[in-house]
Structures are given as C-alpha cells and as structure tokens.
Amino acid sequence: MKKINLLLILLSFISCEKQANRDCIKFHTKNIINIDNLQYDSVGFSDNYDKLQKLDIQEISLDEFIKLNVMKKTFVKIPMKKEKKYYYLETTDKILQLQVEKETTEIKKNWYDILGFYTNLNMYAISNNSVSEGLGFSDLELINKSNGKIYKIVSPGDDKIENPIPSTQSQYLAYFHNQVYDENNSFLGILKFDSSNNLTEYKSYTSENFKIYQIAWSVDDLILIKISSDNGKNFKYYKSNILSKNVDFEELDNHDKWKGTYFLKTSNRDKINTVFNITINSLSDISIKITNDIEESYSHIKAEKINNNKIKIVYNTSIEDEMGIIFIEKLENEYYVSGMPITMINPGNEEYPLQKIK
C-alpha cells in the first residue's frame, strides 16, 4: 500500500512538473515588451468633465444605503510572475514587463505596483509611480488582458485615484479622489464604456465640503456615496441616479455648507443685548429667533442664494426698509451676518461674525 501511495505521489509530481513546463514554454513564446514603450489612452480630464452634466445627489439613511448596496467582489489579488527587477503581466498576444521598485539614491525614479485584477472587465489594475526631487506622483492604469490596451485614469491630484468600481452590468466605472492637502476637497467621476468598449468621461461631482469614504453600486444606474465632513466622526449617505437629467449642480454642497445652528449676541451703545438664533435645516427650511426687549420667532423660511458663498434670508416681509432681511456669508471657514437689522444694532458696523454651533 505504501509503495502504491509513493507511486501516485511521484506521478502527480511529474504531471505538475510537466504542466509548469508547458506554462513556462507558453509564457516565453510570447513577445516580452516593456510597458514604458507602449502607448496608452488617458481618460478623466477635468476639462472634459466640465463640459458634461453633473451628478444629481440625494441624501439617504444608513439603512437605505445598506439595503441598496448589491456590490459583489469583482476585484481580486493575483499571483505575480516576478524575475529579478521586473513584474510580468500576460495578455492574449504579449507579455508586459513592469519595473519593480528598487532601493536607490537617485533623484528621479519610476516603478509599478500591481493592484489586482477585475474579473468582470478582464482588466489588470496597476499603479504607475514616480518620484522627482522628493515629490511623489502616481496614476492608476487599467490594462485590457484581451487586447493589451492601456488606459490611464487622470487623477485630480498628485496621487492616484482610489480603485474604480465597475457597475453591476459593467457599463460604467466609478471612482473617487480626496485631495491630500485640502481636508474636505473631493472628486467623484463616472466613466462609461462606449460601443467599442473604450472608456470615456460621463458625469462627475466635485465638493469642497466633504471627504468621500466609500462608493458602491446598487443597480447599474444608481451609485451610492458615503461621506464625512469631520474626518470620519460622523457620516452621511447619498445616492445618485447617473441617468437623471434633473441636475442640481450644487445641491449637496449647499446643503452641507449651510446646514447647522448659528448664534450671534451683540450689544448696542445703550448696552441692550440682541441675540440671533438661526437654524438652517436646508435652504428651504430656516427658523430664526431674535431676542432683545421682546422675542420674535420665524419659521419655515426659504433662503435665496446670492452666490455659492452668500445667502439672503427674508424672515419678515411686513417690515419696511429691508429691516426683515439678513445675509449670511461664508468666507473660508468663517461665517458673517449682515443686513439692515444688523447695521441698526450698532450703526457703523455692517456685519458681525456669526458663530456656527453645529
């Protein structure tokens, strides 16, 4: 019995050895080409996105986010062929040679990292990295295993985008990028496969008010987004139907920028205090409480957007000389309130800092 088992093991070993040799022969019968000698197509240019529609985004609950998320794992790690200073990726008609990172004191250097493989797209994902005079840069590239075509997805920043997420039917590719040096500056891009299976820009969204932490697909035309404006202490969830034509270019930015509770307490020359408590749930749902000698309360007020950083709030239309109108302006990370009611508290002071409590 022992002799039979040993014989089976030996035969199995010989069989595996033959298979490995066949794979090796197959590998070396293809042309080996350094990837730096190949042309590639670039996609994801901001100029192209600027000419297209923006994503229309709606806030949802965490429960709805979880319920709608039907993502399946299509991005996998793959075993790498590596010899000395190169990785090797096999396509249908050739072998691609990619430089491995090496220890060097050179001012400039280039290398590649293999990120993984998209099973539903039949594409490799790689990172093209470089360092020049102490500054690091990287781009994400996709390589079609069938035809060897290479796409570079242009990053809005110096570092590469996060790994793209294919839609459920593989018609679209979604990706995001958060700026390294700007805390709440983020970009979300949607690429589309055209009739020739080439990638092209489709829609996008840019924000200066939050960082993107996760994206996922529901059905093929519904993208889900998880964001935070306070470094991950609190999260909000959104969805966007990428086919929607009811586009609000800044719905989400304006919602997050103004939503909150504001407070102002100031005194006039007679040392009479005036207190403003302003609550903005949305630009169409604002309440104001003003306290001095008496208390005035106003609710369900709508704001008018003057520009991206300034809104006008008419809280009392019955008062003449614009005494029922205030303006709130955001300058960098500070808020200011102005208008005739503010000026009349202390003539000569046209605006006051407004404290945003939450």
- Report the strand count: 27
Strand order, main sheet: write it out: 22-21-20-19-27-26-25-24-23
Low-confidence stretches: 1-26
In total, the number of domains comes to 2
Write structural notes for this entry.
The chain has two domains: 33-256; 259-356, Lipocalin (Beta Barrel), CATH 2.40.128. The longest helix has 27 residues, at 2-28. It is elongated, with a radius of gyration of 29 Å. The model is unreliable at 1-26 (pLDDT under 50). A nine-stranded antiparallel sheet has the order 22-21-20-19-27-26-25-24-23. A six-stranded mixed sheet has the order 2-11-10-9-8-4, with no helix packed on it. The chain has a four-stranded mixed sheet with strand order 1-7-6-5, with no helix packed on it. It is mainly beta and 358 residues long. Helix content is 15%, strand content 47%. It contains five helices and 27 strands. It has helices spanning 2-28, 46-50, 62-68, 251-258, 340-345, and strands at 31-34, 41-43, 58-60, 75-76, 81-83, 86-90, 94-99, 108-118, 123-132, 135-144, 150-153, 165-166, 172-178, 186-193, 199-207, 211-217, 222-228, 236-241, 260-267, 273-282, 285-291, 295-301, 303-307, 310-314, 325-331, 334-338, 351-356.
Short description:
With about 350 residues, this protein is mainly beta. Helices cover about 15% and strands about 45% of the residues.
List keywords for this structure.
single chain; 358 residues; mainly beta; Lipocalin; nine-stranded antiparallel sheet; six-stranded mixed sheet; 5 helices
